[in-house]
Design goal:
Na+/H+ antiporter like fold, mainly alpha, about 300 residues, single chain
């Protein structure tokens, strides 16, 4: 019950975002602008501040990277295992496969902060920072035949990646961040999570939910059920600390992000199918995340 109460406020904000758009006549343009603000300004500020101030060592960062890379590779493998089993339409599979291993950063960092404060949030920020380029490369590879040749440069310009690399450099090289700048970054980061969760709610859509139901069910099961099992095994194999195992498990149980839908649309995939898969996964994660977190409490 304790874990459920910690997670509940975040899903209440997601529900509020849906209500604001669909019932209280907030415009879609408003949420598109808000999401752009979070993506380019608020969330990079949160990532940089969290990572630059985290108690990290090169060996600790390397261990977290190993765990993150192993988990991402496991998710990609399970997503593509659907091809010989289900024999789906190739475009449909390429469109929704990313929903098995991409993740909603806003939900992850918000719940991490609720579970363990700044220490947990810093570890989650490092995991997210390492996972962003890995997940993006895997997703782009799946849709490469619809690509325009500019995707690699877009990945390198990704504000999450830039914030992560910068934060790690400041941390590991012990470069001090001036107090006024650090305070400003903290305040920007505080805005990021609430606004980001509202935007998640606004993107939820179940229109067309019956299309490719088996394929969508496979990806949602991988994201919410199989990936956490992989995280438990990886945490045990690498002998991670309790807080690191908790954050890796939380990361593994996160639903796919709305950026999966954006990437699919840009590369010519079935964007509606991706959006529905992401939405259903987000709804079910309100049940599965608390259940998984209860397994790693001691």
């Amino acid at each position: 019950m304790y874990v459920i109460l910690l997670v509940l406020p975040d899903f209440m904000l997601i529900a509020l975002g849906w209500v604001l758009l669909h019932k209280l006549n907030f415009s879609a343009d408003f949420f598109r602008s808000a999401e752009k603000l979070v993506y380019y300004v608020l969330f990079p500020a949160l990532l940089f501040q969290s990572i630059s101030q985290a108690p990290l060592s090169p060996s600790g960062a390397w261990l977290i990277f190993q765990a993150t890379a192993a988990l991402c590779a496991f998710g990609v493998l399970m997503a593509w295992f659907a091809i010989p089993v289900l024999r789906p339409n190739k475009l449909a599979h390429a469109s929704v496969a990313q929903c098995a291993y991409r993740f909603n950063t806003y939900i992850g960092l918000s719940i991490a902060g609720s579970l363990g404060g700044a220490a947990s949030q810093s570890i989650m920020a490092v995991i997210v920072g390492f996972a962003v380029p890995l997940a993006n490369v895997a997703a782009v590879h799946g849709l490469a035949r619809q690509g325009n040749g500019k995707v690699l440069s877009e990945i390198l310009r990704n504000p999450f990646i830039i914030a992560t690399v910068s934060g790690l450099l400041f941390n590991l090289l012990q470069i001090p961040v001036p107090k006024p700048i650090d305070t400003a970054l903290v305040r920007l980061g505080a805005c990021a999570l609430a606004i980001g969760l509202l935007c998640v709610g606004a993107t939820l859509s179940l229109h067309g939910a019956r299309a490719a139901a088996t394929l969508m069910g496979w990806m949602i099961a991988v994201r919410l059920l199989i990936m956490p099992l992989g995280a438990l095994a990886i945490g045990w194999a690498l002998d991670l600390s309790l807080i690191e195992r908790q954050m890796l498990l939380l990361f593994s149980a996160l639903p796919a992000s709305s950026s999966a839908h954006v990437l699919t649309a840009r590369l010519g995939g079935d964007a509606r199918l991706t959006a529905v898969t992401m939405s259903i996964g987000t709804l079910f994660s309100a049940i599965t995340i608390p259940l998984w977190l209860m397994t790693v409490t001691t």
